[in-house]
Amino acid sequence: MFTGIVEAKGEIVSLTPKGGDVTLRIRTGALDLSDVQLGDSIAVNGVCLTAVTLPGDGFTADVSGETLRLTTLGNLRAGSIVNLEKALTPTTRLGGHLVSGHVDGLGEVVSMQPDARSIRFDIRAPDALAKYIAHKGSITVDGISLTVNSVDGAVFSLNIVPHTQQMTTIAEWKPGSKVNLEVDVIARYLERLLMGERAAQPGEAGGISMTFLAEHGYLKS
Fold first, then answer.
1. For residue 118, pLDDT beyond 80
2. Greater confidence, 96 or 162?
3. Which has the minimum average pLDDT: 27-41, 70-84, 202-216?
4. In a domain, 211, yes or no
5. How far is CA 161 from CA 27, 119, 121, 166, 171, in A?
6. Do 76 and 24 share a structural domain?
7. Exposed (0-12), middle (13-18) or buried (19+): which is 21, by Cβ within 10 Å?
8. At a CB cut-off of 8 Å and minimum separation 6, what does 44 contact?
9. Which domain holds residue 152?
10. DSSP string over the chain
11. Same domain for 20 and 60?
12. Average pLDDT value for the chain
């Protein structure tokens, strides 16, 4: 688990193809690796990866073909800058929110505009994720815990303060950029709980419709 509070920016050193997937080597810069052991988890742009070697200036991780297809890691190149966060511990301050490092889908930056010293970004999420994104709720974008300022359909807005711009890769975002999205896990559990006994039925992958809510008394006619 993670908090979505980026600890450092790293740099991709190399991507080595290996039998359909990739071994990623990352130089971790200011990230303190003194307490990291082989097998520990580190989030890279919001994707939970396992450290398989620790060469001294960073770590390497194996990235599966599925992860390359479903996240932005497949678009990285040598020299790409990434957000890094070590897995939380029982004594870690939970400054963001609970983040699993399992990407739910890819978003796209629709627009950006100055807002005093901040920058406002509008990001389009996949339609299937829109129901999990709430006004003033939490969302993880490229591994960064952020607050949703507003929602309009599948498009949500973020207000990024200067500190966050400096400490993360957000400064590289522009209209058309693809970003990793992870919705708040609490929303997913709530959806599953609302399904009740229906959740145990084969073929029920999840999903709460307006019809379902009306049938179970959650909507007033």
1. yes
2. 162
3. 202-216
4. no
5. 26, 7, 11, 9, 11
6. yes
7. middle
8. 10, 24, 26, 61, 73, 82, 83, 84, 143
9. 105-183
10. -B-S---EEEEEEEEEEETTEEEEEEE-TT---TT--TT-EEEETTEEEE--B--SSEEEEEE-HHHHHHSGGGG--TT-EEEEEEPP-TT---SS--B-S---EEEEEEEEEEETTEEEEEEEPPGGGGGG--TT-EEEETTEEEE--EEETTEEEEEE-HHHHHHSGGGG--TT-EEEEEE-HHHHHHHHHHHGGGGGSTT------HHHHHHTTSS--
11. yes
12. 91
| Averaged pLDDT, 87-109 | 91
CATH (domain of 14): 2.40.30.20
- Tell me: do 36 and 66 sit in the same domain: yes
The answer to whether residues 71 and 134 belong to one domain is no
User: What is the residue type of 99?
Assistant: V
Per-residue tokens: 84: 């890094």
